[in-house]
Amino acid sequence: MEKLDEAVSYFKQNEGYTRLFKLMKNKYIVYGEIKGNVIINKPSKLEKQVLSGLMKKDYARNMTITISLKKLQEMLDNTKFEGVQLPELLKGYFKEEILTKKESKKQYQTNWEQFLDDILKQNENTIVYPYLKNSIDKKDELYQNIKKHYNKENQILKKELINACNGINNLPKQITRIPVFASNIFSNPHGFDKKTLCGRLFIALLCYIKQVPYPKNSEKLSELYYENNLLVDDVSNMVLCKGIKAYTKGKQHEGWIGFANKQEPIFITLYNLANIDSIEPPNTYKDVVITENPAVFMEIVEKCKTKDFPLVCTYGQVKLAGIMLLDLLTKAGYNLYYSGDLDPEGLQIADNLKQRYQEKMQFFGFNETTYYKNISQITLSNKRLQKLEGIKSPELKQLCKEIAKNKKAAYEEKNIEAIIKFID
Q: Which long-range contacts (CB under 8 A, 24 or more apart) does 80-87 make?
């Protein structure tokens, strides 16, 4: 041991050996033993001097120095450090246990399996346990997602994953705002923010349990949360409507009734909708027209002031408040008719609504006749036109072809009179 300590001290005191030892360490990690050669490119004067002395060879004019590690061991045995083996010298030099790639891989696997075992033990006899166990056994997408985080941030992953699991195990039975929910779980209102590791894991677990894809946008995320009694933003998320009467706890809601009776439009937020049990079933009008654009909505309201018909405006992409209201309307027995722009984005909205409501929703004005009647001179870019390729509804396929062929859009504002005639 004394001889090894002396050898370590000797080589560490001279900077001319620094690169040699680093290269030897890399070789040892790859092969698990000292073998092969190390090459020192553009050696310094000091490196040439010390290595010439060690290897008993003149490197003064060399632009590169190639050293056989087998020969190096032999030369070391011809010095006062005879018997000191290079692997032990390396470990002493770097003051650490040097693991080979094979050893590192084995240790990684052991640590990873222990990590998973700890997570499962933490969640025994809970709601989330069978889902975690199934994912681990199958090594599926959720498992790979957790492993990806383990590789990047394993120091904090266990705590954040346990917090995410606690969230799943304690999902609220009634509508709760996410910051309040997070505070109840681990005293941090921002704990489940979607930008945090815990928040992303929580979302991934919700998706896995519900068997839905990871949300592509904030609206899809809001829907996922709402299906689990969680609200992200219950004030700014809203929908515009007219002529709709609502009930709460079995009684007419005076606010909704008042605006409906006066034929005045009203903004309805998630907060408002969270307190609504049902919508009054249809009387004179069984059809609800849903417009994409607020200008169209208000034009219809202004021109049909005396008519007691239900009307909804989604303001473009349908927010969660819009989905909730349309769900209530279909449940009450209304037929939905969606009117929007005849452009790629408008067709995407229409298609998404059709996928959700199926036979309970019909398209209004989404046909070739309306398109050619109202076609504009605004040219659509190829990037926008590519969105048409994802449309699923068979009823929209031909319209997609016409739009793609002409590269022109038609807008809902040109179809107002047709909507009014339909209401009449």
A: 80/3, 80/6, 81/3, 81/6, 81/7, 81/10, 83/3, 84/3, 84/4, 84/7, 85/34, 86/24, 86/34, 87/28, 87/33, 87/34
- Cα–Cα distance between 321 and 154 in angstroms, integer? 38
Nearest to 297 by CA among 285, 309, 280: 309
- List the beta bridge partners of residue 248: 251
Q: pLDDT at position 366, please? A: 97
pLDDT digits (tens, 9 = 90+) for 342-352: 999 999 999 99
Bridge-based pairing state of the strands 335-339 and 287-291: parallel
pTM of the model: 0.65
Question: Exposed (0-12), middle (13-18) or buried (19+): which is 342, by Cβ within 10 Å?
Answer: buried
Q: How far is CA 335 from CA 98, 255, 279, 298, 364, in A?
A: 71, 24, 13, 21, 12
Instruction: Please say if the pLDDT value at position 322 is more than 80.
Output: yes
In the chain the domains, ranked by start, together with CATH numbers, are 2-98 (no CATH), 102-231 (no CATH), 240-423 (3.40.1360.10)
